[in-house]
Every structure is written in structure tokens, then in C-alpha cells.
Amino acid sequence: MEQRIYEQDFKDSINDPERFWMDQAAQIQWFQKPKQALAKDEHGFYHWFKGGKLNTSYLALDYHIENGRGDDIALIYDSPVTQSVEKYSYLQLRDRVSRLAGGMQRLGVEKGDTVIIYMPMIPEAVVSMLACARLGAIHSVVFGGFAPHELAIRIDDAKPKLIITATSGIEVDRIIPYKPMVDEAIQKATHKPEQVIVYNRKLGAVRPDGENDIDYATLMKIADPVRWTEVDATDPLYILYTSGTTGKPKGIIRDNGGHAVAMQYSMKHIYGLHPREVFWAASDVGWVVGHSYIVYAPLIYGCTTVLFEGKPVRTPDASTFWRVISDHDVKVMFTAPTAIRAIKKEDPEGELIKQFDMSGLRYLFLAGERCDVSTLHWAEDQLNVPVIDHWWQTETGWPIVANMMGFETHFEVKPGSATKPVCGYNVQILREDGTQANRGEEGYVAVKLPLPPGTLPNLWGDAERFVKGYLQKFEGYYFSGDGGYIDEEGYVFITGRVDDIINVAGYRLSTAEMEEVVAKHPDVAECCVVGIEDDLKGQIPMAIAVLKAGSAIEHFQLQTEVVADVRKEIGPVASLKKVLVAERLPKTRSGKILRKIIRAIADGKEFNVPSTIDDPEILTEIQTLFQDQMVGIYEKKVL
Ligand code: COA
Ligand code: AMP
Question: Is residue 152 over pLDDT 70?
Fold first, then answer.
């Protein structure tokens, strides 16, 4: 265990970030070491380790093989939905990755090309990501719960040379055909990828063969394995789209050099792991947690990673997580609070936990959404290990605030707080006018620039949006989009988004995007979508629609149609199930919908009526509306 203390390292990382991170950069294997830590580009954006040369797939695989660890297990695929477990050594994984990279090269993929990956949680998804990294191609993984329309938006933005997909995914007890969704997305998109590589899972899903389809297995048979391609530290490794406050998702760029250094650093210092240990992040490769902590960090650091194809419940029951921990001797686990809530609901007394030997588990890390106190305590009581809430975002790629378990001493957990800023992140709470908030005073959570390595250097193809969305609000700071406060002891509390992004079961979604879909309904004159509290998923979206004059549509009919539209356009993961019909929406005199107040009314919380409100009477109407139409949810919260 690291003998250094957090306070000293944190100070060093803030006072002299270049020196601090050059020291950390020495922990990974470069083909050419960077001479410089930080550089600025023509936009004034920061880049780490310019001039350094490396390859992320080499670091994740070949490096360990060169060090005699070829037979160690790199990846455990545990799939309750197919009732199978497969283990891949570093050598086996490297052979698959280098062969697929060879196949992609045959198809014309070169360094700097983009490739979209739309796959379920199967080893081939990890192989595809690493094969892109091997070639210096830039992957963009799209979560399988997104509909063809969303995939098409990403195709048009990333302009991939090819797409890699599978015939199907499995959602608890149903097969989701992926390939037809890819076909539909390509049809909708303006940009046309040259080819689609299809991994046939042989689960019986319909598999229409297009003339540009390439069978994954056949390609692997004919391809020659290839070596890694050297890339610059500042070259993009991947683009990951995440929800913004408009209908168009933002392409977060991750570089190769800063990312590798941050991944290595975080495994040791935040998660407190040793190489060779088993680490399990129960997320999906379509999200940032999957990128960083299923694929890249554990492999770069030389751990064994678990790729779990299932859910915390129903696959087959609420004991699945504990079985995986026990079967594979997981030392550190990472999941979202919603997963724990789902388990707690099924097994409140933790009876199922007692059936498994989980003595190897050291810590449970939670992130993705606010961790409520009862979930934290339940997990602590049941598992008897430290439960660590930590805060981060797709943009940063690794934790901003955490209890860093790699240091000799840790902080006492304060429920509701993700603890202290991670080394490298100068977290500040700012007021609207940019001045520093006092201790305990709630404000905007911002991070003083430069951000540490591994964080986003820019947005894909949209530097202007990068400035507008993150850098403009507070000069010299990165604005996170979250609100929060720091208490007298320096603990950071994140209170929630201050924009129109919501977190549904730990999935980040944009209400603006859903509003666009609802507004398209022929009977809807105007609408808004807000995130309301939900016992299981943390938040769920709810739409409020005002009907066009003369519309005779029944409420249930509108709800059914809108729910279906959102499912079709955004995907089932949006979880929009409720649509209310209002006479009018509360607005400011300038016409801005007062979403925050609607949210407060829905959650049964106190709110202040702003002086800019156009007609305060509407609030009473909205309250009545909730009482009438939200029977169930509203009753529980308010009545
Ligand atoms: N492909 C296709 N459909 C998908 C999908 C995928 N990869 N992932 C989810 N969906 C679908 C689900 O089948 C569901 O469809 P339905 O409305 O027809 O039932 C819908 O999207 C919502 O999915 P989900 O949020 O997973 O809800 P659920 O009710 O099936 O499960 C939980 C609830 C709490 C168990 C589940 O949300 C969960 O495991 N959450 C943890 C998520 C997580 O790890 N997030 C972390 C990111 S760090
Ligand atoms: P994503 O980019 O999908 O990882 O979502 C990032 C957002 O999720 C953050 O901006 C927060 O709003 C929320 N979030 C993530 N982790 C936490 C946490 N530990 N506590 C509170 N909110 C969190």
C-alpha cells in the first residue's frame, strides 16, 4: 500500500501539476517519453504529454505479456443471461485483438479513422475497442439501449469508416436484435459507413445480410495479426457521446497519453488495487464507466477485469452480484446506487448475501448518481466493507471527488458526500458571479484549469460548444454542470445537476432531447420534460404536454403514443412512462418554462415563486394536475 499521504500529494498536484503528472507519467511504458507535461493548442485548450508516443492496446496487453504475464487472466466474461463464463488470458485477448485489428486494416481502417461499436456486453466488444486502439483508430461505442435514431445522430457526427456490431443482445429474458437497428440507423444517417462487421451470436435473431456486411468470425479466420501503431499522446483514443442540454449529444474526446496515465494512477490511488487483483465495474461498455473501468484502467494496470452481461436483479435473482464477487474473488467492485437499491428491494434483509463467501471484497465504490443515505448504510451493513461514493463525469473520464483508498489513511465516510477532491482536481464552489462560495454555501461546482490528464481536451468537431458548455461560464474554470457545496472539513457534497440533464438509473439523459420528441407529436402544442424523483432509478423523466386547440386526443392515447415515440427515437433506456396533460405551463414573463418549479411540485418539495413568473395561478393548476393525474407517485410523496 502507498505510504504517501493524501494531503501532501494533493497539494503537490495543485501547486505544481506539471511536475506531479510527469512523475506519474513515468509509471507507464512510452515508446517515446514526453518532454513536456502541458501544452496549449491554437484555441488555448490544454493537452497533456505532447510529443510522447505510445499505444494504449500495447499498454493494456502486450506490455504485460512482455513482462511474463501472458498466461494471467485478463478478462472474465460472466454472463448469467447465457449461463456462461469464459476466461481470457492476456495472450488470448491480445491474439484476438491483434487479429481483429489486422482484419480491420484489410478493410482499410487506418490511424485516425473513426469506428462505431454498437454491441452488447460480450468479449468481442472489448476486443473491438482494443483493436481500434491498436491501429490508432478512434472508436465510439454507442450504448445498446439507444434506438436507431440516436445511433444515426452519432454516425453523422463521428462519420465512421465502419461499424462493428453483433446480431443481438439479451435483456433479462428477451433477445434484442442489434443488427436491424444498425441497418435502420445507417438508412437514417447521411453519412454511410463503408462496411459493417457483424458478430453472429447464434441466438436465433434475424440477421439480414447487407452487401456491405462482413462476418466477424470469417474476418478473424482470414486476417493476419498486426502489431500496434505508435500514436501521439494527444491523438484521440475514443469519442464518447454524452447528453448535453440540447437535442444533440456531445462527443467527448479522450486522448491516449493523458488517459493512460490517469487510468494507471486511479487504479492504485483511488481504488487501492494491486496488479493481478480482480476488479469489477458492473456497468456497460457503452458508458464512460465501462470504457475506463471495465476495459482500459484494469488492463493497463495489469488487473483482471470482469465483463458482466446481466442485471443486478432478475438474472436470475438478487444474488447475482454476490455470486460474481465470490466466484471470481473480486477485490474491489464498482456499481451505481440504483443497482444496490434494486437488490435491496428484492432482498431487504440481505439473506442472499449470506450464501456467498465474499471475504475477498475490500471496497464497494458507487457512482453515476447521488447516493442516498439509506442505500449507503444498507450496503455498509450488509457487506461490511467501506462503501465509497465518488463523483465524476463522462467528461473527466475518472473520479473528481473520492475517498482515495490507495493512501495509507482514508477519510471517514460522511453520508451524502463523495469525500475530497482527487489529486489533480482543484474543485471550487462558485457563485453565479464567479466569486467563491463560503464553506457550506451551495453553488456551482467548478474545477480550476488545467484539468488533470485523462480529462476531455475538446469536443469532437465542436470547439465552440466546448467553450460555451464548459469554459465560458467561469473564466479559468471547467464548469461541471453540477451544483454542490464544500463543508467546513473540506468534504464535497454534490447536490445535483443545475441544467436539464437527468440521471435515470445512473444513465445520463437529456430532457431537452426528450422534449424534442414529445413536441413532434401532432396533438402537442408545447411541452416540457422534467426529471422527478424515483425510489428505484433515482430519477425518471415525466412529460407535461399542452394540447393544440381543438385536439380531441384522450389522455391515455397521448401517453401511449408519446411513450412509444420516445422509445423509438431515443431508446427504451429513457424510461419515459408518464405524460400529463396541462392547460398551460408555468413560465417567466420572457417565456422560459419554469421546469425547476414543476420538478419541485412533482417531488412535493418547497419552492419559491420567482418574481419573474408570468401568472402564478398556473402553479395551482399544476399542483391540481399532479393530484389528479399522478395518482400513485404524487400520493406517496405529498398527500
Ligand atoms: N439494450 C437494449 N435495451 C436495453 C439495454 C440494452 N443494452 N439496456 C437497457 N435496456 C432497456 C431495458 O430492457 C428496459 O426496457 P423495458 O422498458 O422494455 O423494460 C429499459 O431499457 C430500461 O432499462 P433499465 O434502466 O436497465 O431498467 P430495468 O428496469 O431493466 O432495470 C435496474 C432496473 C435498476 C436493475 C437497472 O437500471 C440497472 O441495473 N441499473 C444500473 C445501471 C448502471 O450500472 N448504470 C451505471 C452507469 S455507471
Ligand atoms: P455521466 O457523465 O453519465 O457519468 O454522468 C455524470 C453526472 O452524474 C454528474 O455530472 C452528476 O450529475 C452525476 N453523478 C455521477 N456520480 C455522482 C455522485 N457520486 N454523486 C452525485 N452525482 C453524481
Answer: yes
Q: Whose CA is nearest to atom 1 of ligand 2?
A: 393
CA–CA dist 321, 342 (Å, integer): 11
Virtual torsion, Cα 242, 247, 251, 252, nearest 10 deg: -40
Measured CA distances, 101 to 114, 222, 229, 240 (Å): 13, 12, 10, 20
Does ligand 1 lie within 6 Å of residue 531's CB atom?
no
Given ligand 2 and candidates 283, 389, 391, which is best to mutate, with the most ligand atoms within 8 Å of its CB? 391
Question: What number does the ligand 2 atom closest to the CA of 287 have?
Answer: 3
- The C-alpha atoms of residue 567 and residue 48 are separated, in whole angstroms, by 40
292 lines ligand 2 (CB under 6 A): no
Closest residue (by CA) to atom 10 of ligand 1? Answer: 145
Model confidence, pTM: 0.95
> Which pLDDT score, from 0 to 100, does residue 608 have?
86
Q: Does the structure show a pLDDT above 50 at 637?
A: no
Determine phi and psi for 106, rounding to 5 degrees.
-55, -35
Which pLDDT does position 207 carry in this prediction?
61
CB of 393 sitting under 6 A from ligand 2:
yes
Average pLDDT over residues 32-44: 95
Q: Which ligand is nearest to the CA of 541?
A: 1
How far is it, in rounded angstroms, from Cα 424 to Cα 12? Answer: 9
Q: Which domains does the chain have, with CATH numbers?
A: 6-310+390-484 (3.40.50.12780), 505-638 (3.30.300.30)
- Cβ–ligand 2 distance for 195 under 6 Å, the answer no
In the block, residue with C-alpha cell 493537452:
47
Instruction: State phi, psi for 304 to the nearest 5 degrees.
Output: -100, 130
The answer to whether the CB of 337 is under 6 A from ligand 1 is: no
Q: Which pLDDT does position 638 carry in this prediction?
A: 44
Give the whole-angstrom CA distance, residue 364 versus residue 420: 17
Identify the burial level of 550 via C-beta atoms within 10 angstroms of its C-beta, where 0-12 means exposed, 13-18 middle and 19 or more buried.
exposed
Model confidence at 208, pLDDT cuts 50, 70, 90, reads low
d(C-alpha 474, C-alpha 427), whole Å = 13
Report the alpha-carbon distance of residue 399 to residue 238 in Å, rounded.
Answer: 18
Among protein residues, the one with the nearest Cα to ligand 1's atom 17 is: 572
Nearest CA to ligand 1 atom 22: 573
Distance between CA atoms of 75 and 92, rounded to whole angstroms? 10
- Ligand 2 centroid from CA 220, angstroms: 38
Q: Which residues of 501-526 are buried (b: 16+ CB within 10 A; e: fewer)?
A: bbbbbbbbbbbbbbbbbbeebebbeb
The DSSP symbol for 390 reads -
Ligand 1 centroid, distance to 622 Cα (angstroms): 30
Q: Is the dihedral of CA 613, 616, 621, 622 positive or negative?
A: positive
Given ligand 1 and candidates 117, 167, 171, which is best to mutate, with the most ligand atoms within 8 Å of its CB? 171
Task: Determine the residue of 508, 513, 539 to mutate for testing ligand 2's pocket, defined as the one with the most ligand atoms within 8 A of the Cβ atom.
Answer: 508
